[in-house]
Amino acid sequence: MASSQASAFGLKDPSLIKFQGLIDGKWVDAKDGAKIVVKNPASNQELGTVPEMGLAETEEAIAAAAKAFPAWSTTTAKERHDILMKMYALMQQHHDDLGRLITLENGKTLTEGKGENTYSSSFIEWYAEEAIRTYGEQIPSAFKNVRNIVIKQPVGVVSIMTPWNFPSAMITRKLGAALAAGCTTVIKPPPETPFSALALAELASRAGVPDGVINVVTTEKNVAAVGKQMCESPIVKKVTFTGSTPVAKLLAGMAASTLKKVSLEAGGNAPFIVFDDANIDEAVAAAIVCKFRGSGQTCVCANWIYVHSTVYAEFASRLAEKVAAFKIGDGLDESTTHGPLIHSRATEKVTRHIEDAVSKGAQVLVGGKVVENTNFFQPTVLSDVPSDALINDEETFGPLAALVKFDTEDEVIKLANATEVGLAGYFFSRDIGRAWRVAEKLEVGMVAVNTGLISQAVIPFGGVKESGLGREGGPHGIDEYMNEKLIVFGGL
Length: 492
Fold this sequence. Notes:
Layout: H1 2-7, E1 21-23, E2 26-28, E3 35-40, E4 45-51, H2 55-73, H3 77-93, H4 95-106, H5 110-131, E5 137-139, E6 147-154, E7 157-161, H6 169-181, E8 184-188, H7 194-207, E9 214-216, H8 223-232, E10 236-242, H9 245-255, E11 261-265, E12 270-274, H10 280-292, E13 302-308, H11 312-324, H12 344-359, E14 363-366, E15 380-383, E16 400-406, H13 409-417, E17 421-422, E18 424-428, H14 432-441, E19 446-449, E20 464-465, E21 468-469, E22 482-489
Parallel strand pairs: 7-8, 7-10, 8-9, 10-11, 12-13, 12-18, 13-16, 15-16, 18-19
Antiparallel strand pairs: 1-2, 3-4, 5-6, 6-22, 11-21, 14-15, 17-20
């Protein structure tokens, strides 16, 4: 039965499709047999089912990770490097299948699905190389005959909780670092997109990751109990999460019960600023990539687009013209430029934001409607969006570009910073002095100057204010999964 279900995905290697969770190297169902139905958001047709696991399975997964930790944590950095590089090679080998799988369960275009696999695998490659660079240090002592040495050790069992918008990359950004550091893991993927997580676990096993080092618990209805256990269990030593700010706060509070380490990448409300001296063609192209990638379902996409009044009409006209040429549809169709939103709740939120803005004076330049009885939403550009619109307080997470005029640098910086979150910010200017001033004044963790793209494996990804804690990726990303230990040698 599972074999026939897997063949329906159209993969070259159907064995990548798993319909069970993973605990201690065994593919298992929920103890009560309950299932989660996973649908293709482009068609609303069932893709398959995964187990509706609960507290008992989560406890088993944590215990399996704890059992595997002593052996995995004492492997050499070179051994972990080699295994991760094998996993990276397997992700490259199965590039087409993994990209197609992302498209089927998430809805993004096949080009974006394959692009995500490239991005996702880059974290495995990066952390394979970082595994052998977890250097310690010697600190000069104030006392004779004493040496101070600092070493780094893996924290232990790590709970990994990820969102549906990047079904693969949000896992590897955390998993790669955890494995490279010598940690063992329990992964809770989102119920909307579990198959990518399960495929990654299968490839990790093929690469030589031992049983129990990676465990995958799938859940939907039991998410509160599962998440609580993953945060509060004294066996778990680290929690890493990507998702909304309200959920991040809940998880942080739970993790505080045992004072475990946390990495939280929470919500954003990214400003995109176009100054009067900007290259308008470049700014429009970047806005399209930044705002509409994944149909606007990315945490770093522009939520507000602030345009200087002297170039506002030109920018708005060019952006609307480009957006009007988009084609929404099934991501597997080569002619599709933008896929569906993940589910009806997402389309309802975009509709609510548009209706609110229009009721307060905004104008619809293009788009503005949901395709009836589907998850497709017309890519939309609104002009003259007022500052009291809902978009100002809520991240839309959809294909809605909200344009606002401004006149001065100080004015737009105040507008951009008037939010409780601060993940990413973008601006366009050819004035080098302004570039430095604005980059330093924006209250965000990441600033893009004259580009609409930020995400890379080699950079420290994360925010400030209520956008989270810690950094993922880059040279310091692995440190989030390690403890520093001081060893003082006397009598020398």
